[in-house]
Amino acid sequence: MARNRLTKSQDEHPAGTVFDSSAERGKNFTFNLGKGAIKAIDLAVRSMRVGERASVVCRSDYGYGSEGLRSSKGDVMVPPFSTLNFELKRIC
């Protein structure tokens, strides 16, 4: 049963699917270190200098884990156990 859900999730969200883009929204993503971001982003930003860019590949236990991410309506945005890729630029 879990295998069927995972396969369905992979079919509905193929590799490379963009689930969020602050660049497309025209608004920077802001958060306080240690709060408001997944673990991978928090760790990456801590090690970056202002103006530095980074490509971050995030395994699921540093991202949304076994729960994945759902919208406020309950729709799956990021399937469980997803590996995530982020392009970051630290601006402050």
Profile the largest sheet.
Answer: 2 strands, antiparallel
Roughly how many Å is the radius of gyration?
Answer: 14 Å
> Alpha-carbon distance between the termini?
46 Å
Order of helices and strands: HHHEEEE
E-strand count: 4
The best one-word shape is globular
| Strand line-up of the largest beta sheet | 1-4
Low-confidence stretches: none
Structural class: alpha+beta
Helix content: 25-40%
- Mean pLDDT score: 87
Would you write up a description of this structure?
The structure is a single chain. The protein has 92 residues and is of the alpha+beta class. The chain contains three helices and four strands; from the N terminus they run H-H-H-E-E-E-E. It has helices at 2-12, 22-25, 39-46, and strands at residues 53-58, 69-70, 76-78, 84-89. A hairpin with a 5-residue loop joins strand 2 (69-70) and strand 3. The longest helix is centred in the first third of the chain and has 11 residues, at 2-12. The radius of gyration is 14 Å and the shape is globular.
Q: Which terms summarize this structure?
A:
single chain, two-stranded antiparallel ribbon, alpha+beta, 4 strands, globular
Write the layout of secondary structure elements.
Blueprint: H1 2-12, H2 22-25, H3 39-46, E1 53-58, E2 69-70, E3 76-78, E4 84-89
Antiparallel strand pairs: 1-4, 2-3
Compact description:
The protein has 92 residues and is α+β, with helices and mostly antiparallel strands. Helices cover 25% and strands 18% of the residues.
